[in-house]
Amino acid sequence: MYVKFFLKPLVCFAPTDEGAGGATAAGAEGADTVTGNAGADTIEGGAGADTVATGGGADTVATGAAKWWEDAKFNDHRDLLVSKGLTLDDKDEVIARLAKGEKAAQMKLGKPADQLLSKPGKGESVAEWLKANGSTFGIPESADKYDVQRPESWPKDAPWNDALEGKVREIGLASGMSNDAVNAMVGLYAENIMALDKQAADDFEKGSAEMMAALEKDWGDQTQAKLTLASQAASVIAEKAGLDATAMENLAASLKPKIGDAGTMRVFAAIGEMMGDDQMVMGDGGVSLNTTPAEARAKLSQLQGKGGEWYEATSKKDQQAIARLKPEVERLTKIAAG
């Protein structure tokens, strides 16, 4: 770490002797005089040939001459040179020590000093420091630059929360998170959602099994007949209430085995039993809840035959009429099948 600061200046101080007529160091022989001197081969103020000022004889060096490290070019480094014991007359020794120190420092740090990261500055948050060194830590320049990958286990037909992903990107950038860290967070969330979904499905399946077990315990071998009666009663009530096709489908779903609601099934089964005695009919001239399979087939033939309501509705693609008649057709079809 020191060579880069001192090696070049030290080399500049190496002595030279260019010969006669050249600029010779103090004490060198030859016609190396200083302009304005009164004698041959003397330096201003010298006492004899080839001497320096205050010298006592030929080719002598003045006492108290400045040291190389006292030169102005070392002003910024002099304290370090002194503290490290590098104020030696032998510049080669100084260079050797500097090189040795640099090598030892690199071995200890594992890399050159210019490749080391500095700590966050005063008042600088860790997130800001991380983003400032984004190229090192894998932090993109903006939130949309994150390469977010959905987990391979994520169901292809399952919806993905794009809005939430956008918020994760923003939080990741604001917190100085790397691309890998953001993907780890996204993966954790996705796995949690899939686990919750599986748990809900398992709980629903368990609840449905328990529901059917409870109904079969109460109804015994009449379970299927009771479920059919509940479905028929629901269709009559739904039509009388003026429910649209979607509402009817939702109601029908609540009455299906394994996925329906036991309470709803019990209610409509009871309603069906009550309605059966009163011969409550469905539609104008429709059939009652205790319609026999033969009567159901006859009614279906009338509805679906040429001139029948279902025939006309489907031929004209009258969606309103189709929605109104569909529950009745489905109910009659079930009865007709026994």
Polypeptide structure, described:
With 338 residues, the protein is mostly helical. The protein is built from 13 helices and no strands.
Sheet of most strands: none
What is the 3D form?
A: rod-shaped
Mean pLDDT comes to 74
- DSSP, total strands: 0
Distance between the termini: 96 Å
Please give a quick description of this structure.
Helices cover 54% and strands 0% of the residues. It is an all-alpha fold and 338 residues long.
Question: What key attributes describe this structure?
Answer:
0% strand; 338 residues
What layout of secondary structure does this protein have?
Blueprint: H1 3-12, H2 78-83, H3 91-109, H4 126-132, H5 134-137, H6 162-174, H7 179-219, H8 223-240, H9 245-253, H10 262-277, H11 293-304, H12 309-316, H13 319-336
